[in-house]
From TrEMBL:
GO terms for biological process: mRNA processing; polyadenylation-dependent RNA catabolic process. The active site is at D72, D74, D148. It catalyses: RNA(n) + ATP = RNA(n)-3'-adenine ribonucleotide + diphosphate. Belongs to the tRNA nucleotidyltransferase/poly(A) polymerase family. It holds the Pfam family PolyA_pol_arg_C. The keyword Transcription applies. Residues 431-442 have a biased composition (Basic residues). The keyword Zinc does not apply. Residues 54-179 form the Poly A polymerase head domain. Residues 417-449 are annotated as: Disordered. This is Poly(A) polymerase I. It comes from Pollutimonas nitritireducens.
Length: 449
């Protein structure tokens, strides 16, 4: 405890700026105000007008400086939630642990939070030093000190167009260095999710992690297991959907964090074509992210775990089990292994299973079952998955394309496609038909039925 207290104190000493913040002009930081959300500017203007200070902060400033498009815009201010809310027509106070205000402009929400005080020894922590409750408002300087990395602690004032930099975050950002504010070990202990964030920003910005911030990662990786499961799932999803998913996985693996969140990864990568399959799936995800499309968590996890499911499936089939039963058992065992470390929400698990089970059904479908398959809510995702498998040379690409065309067709074209296919089947010599027996081995060619 005493050691922690001293560490906290030293951490805060380091975190304290030595000579006040740097005020960086737009010529040096390079943010073009036209790329800044006009709603975020509006929030700052209104608060300024009322005599408060207000800045755009965090990921948006970081991304604007390096020329990426920000996901969203957050504002930090010295006004309290109760002072902020009445200033806007559509604003609501949210959050229990730390209240903040959502200011709503049509589709866009500007998350507006009051400067927060950094971690202090008086705060509630668990036995590992993880902060359980922090609800203290603070000064601008304190708000900067409680942020995670120097490059995330930059404040943009849209009125003067200056960036306020308390922790030399701008030079770090320009050099692409992810550096923890304060004592890294203490800060990871306070919130182990910061370990995942460090890796994500390194991947996303093609940055390195400063040695002092990197060194504790291997040693402290296991602390991630104390993070509540839903938060962990959200963070892993952020990692996988940041546009650099494979890079993130490699970063996780390099420090051993994957063992605590994606325990199947080592084994998957050892399977023949396992790494390539994951790479292909994640490259598709990255492409969708860049195109601004939505990402389905079920599809992602279905892909991450598929090679193991497939392996188990074949093993169980080889023991003489019926393929459909075998696939169900394989899915159960792989999902159980995964959820011991990282719980996947039940609805996603159900969707993953559907995507997998349909892979087997594609192989055996006839006219009647094709129509039933089409009606499945996950049909489209399963067909996408089949395409992914075709790309990985696991199934025939012509057949995968037939299913994709079917998914894209309207009902009357579907009827024609299925009829033409049935006719083709009927015209085939009996030997060819026999080859499509329902008890074929799994993961062979998905047949165009
Ligand atoms: P992105 O939105 O691109 O994922 P971000 O940096 O904006 O990245 P958010 O989770 O939106 O991430 O958080 C906004 C800001 O809040 C961060 O930039 C950082 O300053 C601060 N922050 C977020 N999470 C933490 C944390 N766990 N510890 C300390 N500060 C944090
Ligand atoms: Mg953000």
């Amino acid at each position: 405890m005493l050691k922690e207290t001293i560490k906290n104190f030293v951490g805060r000493l380091f975190a304290a700026p030595r000579r006040g913040p740097e005020r960086v002009t737009k010529e040096k930081h390079g943010i073009d105000r036209r790329n800044v959300s006009r709603h975020a500017i509006k929030v700052c203007e209104v608060l300024h007008h009322e005599g408060y200070s207000a800045y755009i902060v965090g990921g948006a400033v970081r991304d604007l400086i390096v020329g990426l498009e920000p996901k969203d815009f957050d504002v930090a201010t010295n006004a309290t939630p109760n002072q902020i809310r009445p200033l806007f027509r559509r604003a609501r106070i949210i959050g229990k642990r730390f209240q903040l205000v959502h200011v709503v402009f049509g589709q866009e929400i500007i998350e507006t939070s009051t400067f927060r005080a950094p971690a202090s020894v008086e705060q509630d922590t668990d036995e590992h030093g993880r902060i359980l409750r922090d609800n203290l408002f603070g000064t601008h300087e304190e708000d900067a000190a409680r942020r995670d990395f120097t490059l995330n602690a930059l404040y943009y004032d849209p009125i003067t167009e200056e960036v306020i930099d308390y922790h030399r975050g701008l030079p770090d950002l320009k050099k692409r260095v992810v550096r923890m504010i304060g004592d890294p070990e203490t800060r990871y202990r306070e919130d182990p999710v910061r370990m995942l964030r460090a890796l994500r920003f390194a991947a996303k910005l093609s940055a390195t992690i400063d040695p002092a911030s990197r060194e504790p990662l291997v040693r402290m990786a296991h602390l991630i297991e104390n993070v509540p499961s839903s938060r962990l799932f959200d963070e892993i999803l952020k990692l996988l959907t940041c546009g650099h998913a494979m890079d993130c996985l490699r970063q996780l693996q390099a420090v051993g964090l994957h063992q605590s969140v994606l325990p199947s990864m080592d084994l998957t990568f050892k399977q023949e074509g396992g790494e390539e399959f994951v790479e292909l799936a994640l490259a598709r995800t990255d492409a969708r992210v860049r195109a601004g499309k939505t990402i389905s968590p079920s599809f992602l996890f279905a892909a991450l775990l598929w090679k193991l499911v497939n392996k188990r499936w074949q093993e169980i089939c080889a023991e003489g089990e019926h393929p459909a039963q075998a696939l169900m058992q394989a899915a159960d065992s792989v999902v159980a292994e995964q959820t011991r470390k990282l719980a996947i929400q039940r609805r996603f698990q159900a969707d993953m299973r559907e995507i997998w089970f349909m892979q087997a059904r594609f192989e055996r479908a006839n006219a009647k079952t094709i129509w039933r398959l089409i009606e499945q809510p996950r049909f489209r995702a399963a067909v996408d998955f089949l395409q992914l498998r075709a790309e990985a040379h696991e199934v025939d690409s012509v057949q995968a394309q037939w299913w994709m065309d079917l998914a894209n067709a309207d009902d009357s074209s579907r009827a024609e496609m299925i009829e033409a296919h049935e006719a083709e089947q009927r015209g085939k010599p009996p030997a060819a038909r026999r080859r499509r027996s329902p008890r074929r081995r799994p993961a062979a060619q998905a047949s165009r039925p």
